[in-house]
Amino acid sequence: MGYIENLEKLNSEMIEELANSVRINSAMSDAVRTPNGEVYPFGKGVQDALVHFLELGKRMGFEVHNYDNYAGEIVFPGDPGDETFGIIGHLDVVPAADDWMYGPFNPVIEDGYMYGRGTSDDKGPVMAGLFAIKAIRDAGITPKKNIKIIVGLDEEHGTESVEHYRDVASLPDFGITPDANFPVINGEKGILSFDIAQKLKKHTPKEGLVISKLQGGLAANAVPAQARAVLASEDRTKYDEISERVKRYAEESGYDISAKKTGTSLAVEAHGLAAHGSIPEKGLNAVSILMEFLGKLKFAGDDVTEFIDFYNDHIGFDLNGERLGCKLEDDKSGKLIVNVGTMEINDEVATMEINIRIPVTFDSTEVYAGIESVLGANQGIVKVMDEKSIYIDPEDDFVKTLMAAYKEYSGDKDSEPIVIGGGTYAKHFNRVLAFGALFPWEEDRMHMTDERISLDSYSRMANIFAATVYNLCCR
Asked: What is the pLDDT of residues 171-188, one digit of tens each?
């Protein structure tokens, strides 16, 4: 019996084991030390998910390894000394609120979908990969290359898990990470995060209008949906004038911005639309709305005005670095992308956190050089993160093999490899590409309430992964 036929026989078990995994609340929590001294670095729920997955692999007859409770792997050995192919995913999930139809950790199947946190990100795709290699082994096929299913445990919050794995384990020579979209993602833009900061002199309301506090956004890689500035002046009659100007600005621009007296201050609040920092065009930056309005006011401190003017002159609503000195573009991956994710102003410092997606033929040195050319004398850059881009030519045999398996079992004959602005585990390994597992026609509910996976898609992705493994490792 062939491996695809085996997957059909294994389908019920594959669904059951995914449900068992989803029942485990593996949102990261504080580290736990057991009475015998063992440490669960990402909390007990994540540890339980790792134990379940490795025990399942062991019951299937594979080798399993637990790397200090930071990461795990299931191994299907091939010829000694040959290359190793990896399927790399993660078992941790984002936290879930209590507004689900059935509960985030109570997997329910309805209308052809399994609902539950982690079904699509990333427990379902990882489980499909595991059953794909089981189907190949049950068909009596011995691979010519070694095969590993590698699971990280803190992907939703950081890279500590995969960095530990890189330090202590033998890395795959090539592979896939089913933690994004189909078809093949043959490139990921570089990701750069940094702060632009400016020290401020302390000014009091006696000197005129001041910003006592400004805060907007939650993270560098997210478009801020809210931004709020608290203004103060000894002359309270200014508040009515500013409130009227806010109202006129809202009417003229169509933006959601309002003003409200609060104690001895005036709060101005802007609302935008949240989106991922890699696709800011799908959102509306509330910080940009607020800063554009504040640029119309006169403040007591020239330094605050300088910072606001810098923002409006060099960033504003631009998304591609046009005025920030870093307008870069290439044919392989398109335009550079800029997102201002957070902003904070107090009486000591003004700071904005910027997240940039760099086209694959450029690097951070060119970005920084451009930005430094437009910085004011009192502004500086504080570097935070610099992830290099990855890119494999669509004509590479590796990419072609992945695309062939996708087209055969998805029924989609038209899609082509794509380059994204987001980042996956692919950036932490050599010659690894994101491959699946959300199909182009599906609604993306990852990280959302009522996350789900289509059981038909679950079966299709297992077929695609099995065909990929067979074509790359068993022929």
From this structure: 999 999 999 999 999 999
What is d(CA 299, CA 327) in angstroms, rounded to the nearest whole number?
31
139, 126 contact by CB (below 8 A) = no
Catalytic machinery residues: 92, 155
CA–CA separation, 30 vs 433, rounded Å? 31
Give the three-state DSSP class for 177.
strand
CB 188 within 8 A of CB 210: no
CB atoms within 10 A of CB 432: 25
Q: Answer for the pair 136, 469: CB distance below 8 angstroms, yes or no.
A: yes
- Sequence-distant (6+) residues with CB within 8 A of 307 are 198, 200, 345, 350, 379
* Residue in 74, 44, 53 with CA at minimum distance from that of residue 123: 53
Q: Could you tell me the CA-to-CA distances from 399 to 173, 262, 291, 396 in Å, in that order?
A: 15, 59, 44, 5
Q: Which of 151, 179, 137, 120 is nearest to 466 (CA)?
A: 137
Q: What angle do CA 105, 106, 112 make, to 5 degrees?
A: 115
With b for 16 or more beta-carbon neighbours within 10 A and e for fewer, the 209-244 pattern comes to: bbbbbbbbbeebbbbbbbbebbbbbeeeebbeebbe
Does the pLDDT of residue 1 top 80, yes or no? no
- pLDDT category, 80, cuts 50, 70, 90? confident
Write the DSSP assignment of 138-172 as a string of letters. HTTPPPSSEEEEEEES-TTT-SHHHHHHHHHSPPP
Farthest CA pair distance, the chain: 85
Whole-angstrom distance, CA of residue 216 vs CA of residue 220: 11
Cis peptide before 183 (omega within 30 of 0): yes
Report the C-alpha gap between 394 and 225 in whole angstroms: 37
Burial degree of 369 (CB within 10 A; 0-12, 13-18, 19+): exposed
Using the CB atoms, write b or e for 47-74: b if 16+ within 10 Å.
bbbbebbbebbeebebebbebebbbbbb
289 vs 286: CA distance, rounded Å: 5
- Angle of helix 3-22 relative to helix 123-138, nearest 10 degrees? 150
Burial of 321 (0-12, 13-18, 19+ CB in 10 A): buried
Global pTM reads 0.86
Q: What is the 3-state secondary structure (H, E, C) of 216-279?
A: ECCCCCECCCEEEEEEECCCCHHHHHHHHHHHHHHHHHCCEEEEEEECCEEEEEEECECCECCC
Name the H helices within 315-373.
364-372
pLDDT band at 220 (very low <50, low <70, confident <90, very high): confident
Q: Which phi and psi (to 5°) does residue 323 adopt?
A: -105, 0
For range 391-409, the mean pLDDT: 97
b/e 330-340 (16+ beta carbons within 10 angstroms → b): bebbbbbbbbb
Q: Cβ(32)–Cβ(40) under 8 Å?
A: yes
